Structure formats: structure tokens, C-alpha cells
Amino acid sequence: MNNGKLVIKDLCVNIGDKEILKGINLEINKGEIVALMGQNGAGKSTIGMTLMGYPGYTVTKGEIIYDGENILEMSTDERAKKGLFLSFQHPPEIPGLSVSNFLRSAYNSVNNTKINVMDFYKILKEKMSLLKIDDQFALRPLNEGFSGGEKKRIEILQLAILEPKIAVLDENDSGLDLSSMKIVADGLNEIRKKTGMGMLLITHYNRFLSYLKPDKVYIIRDGKIITEGLSDLANEIEDKGYEMFA
């Protein structure tokens, strides 16, 4: 039994004619927190986009195995229904679509159901309370006029609603003040405890990791994993910078 394990094997990815990922190997087990760190342009976000089958990211070699199945031929919605989730680095604004309607549509789509408004509102209210999000946000147009930190918290609200098996969080700490960062981290820890969700945390900074305590840390440079280690590796990077790998 594969039990929710995600394995990336020798993954090479192009955007247009440019090779971005050059043989990535990475594993996430059920309930495991894995951190992916590296400088800008190293290929961190490309891994997340490729995992979800985002258009324009062409896999030229390798496999992505989830629960023993190669998911590369699956559409993005099929991957989401299988239990994968990506929190965007730059969440888009969608005028005219309320947060609550968006989240209910996403819930219905991923779960192949049609939950009624009142039952969904009970779930929504519980998750908003967990993340300390004011109720009025449910009625606002999705991300329109939101601060960077508010957008990131709404992304985590979506994760809390969908309860994926593997969540990829692309720089979710970016734009969060220290108080909001702890609220988000506490919420993620609670969701993980309840569901056994695995997480891939894409980040530049160690502070977010101090709240979430990764089981493994991978360092990526120029499209390749150059080293991996335990959580103390992130502490070393904070002290010495990425120059320690030069």
C-alpha cells in the first residue's frame, strides 16, 4: 500500500525552449512536512506548477507517482480530486465571484457532490474561525482589494475546506506579518493533525518553518536538488545563506 506517498523521479521540465528542472528527485510521505528552499529562479515554483499540471510546463523526462500511479497524464481537476492542492504564490483577483461561492464550487467539484448552502456555511464558518478570518470576507469578491496577507489566508482557507492529501504551499509566508504567520501555521498544523495531510512548503525563510517543523529540507539551485537534510539545515541557511553551497 502506497498510503498517500508522492514521489518525483528524475523530473525534467521546460517552459518554452528553456529547461527549468533538470532531474528532480523528491518524496513526500503521508503526514510529512517537506521544505523546499532556494534562491529566486531556482525552480521552486515550477515544481508546484508541474505537480498540478499547469499549462505551459512541459515534462520532458521523469515521473510523478502518487499512490503508486503516474499522474502526468491526468488533468488538473483529476489531480485535485485525487487529493493534490496548490496554494498560489500570487493568488488572482476574481471580481464578481464571492469567496463563499468560489469555495463552495471548489468543494463540490473536488468531492463530486452538491452541498446545500446552509450545510456548506457551517463548514465555512468553522474553518474561518480556525484561521481567525472575519465572517465578512465570505461575502467579498475573491481577493479583490485584499492585502497580500489576506490573499494568502484565503488560500489556506481553501485548503482547510478541501482537506487535500498533499498540499503544495508556494511562499505562503510571503506577505504575512508575524501574527498572521503564526495563525496560518497553527491552522496548518491542526489540519495536518486531523487529516494526515502531507505538505511541501516552498519558502525562502526559516521563520515559517520554525512553526511547522519540517521532517526534511531540500535545497534547489539551477533546477537541481543540491542537498537535503533535516530541519537544522534550514537553520544553517538562515545563519550562513545559500553561499554555503557555492
Give the tags.
alpha/beta; 246 residues; six-stranded mixed sheet; four-stranded antiparallel sheet
Written account of the structure:
The chain has 8 helices and 12 strands. The chain has 246 residues and is of the alpha/beta class. The protein has one domain (6-245): 3-Layer(aba) Sandwich (Rossmann fold). The strands form 3 sheets. It has a 6-stranded mixed sheet with strand order 6-9-10-3-11-12, with helices on both faces.
Secondary structure layout:
Elements: E1 6-15, E2 18-28, E3 33-37, H1 44-51, E4 57-66, E5 69-70, H2 76-82, E6 84-87, E7 94-98, H3 99-111, H4 117-130, E8 141-142, H5 148-162, E9 166-170, H6 178-195, E10 198-203, H7 207-212, E11 216-221, E12 224-229, H8 232-240
Parallel strand pairs: 3-10, 3-11, 6-9, 9-10
Antiparallel strand pairs: 1-2, 1-4, 4-5, 7-8, 11-12
Helix pairs in contact: 3-5, 5-6
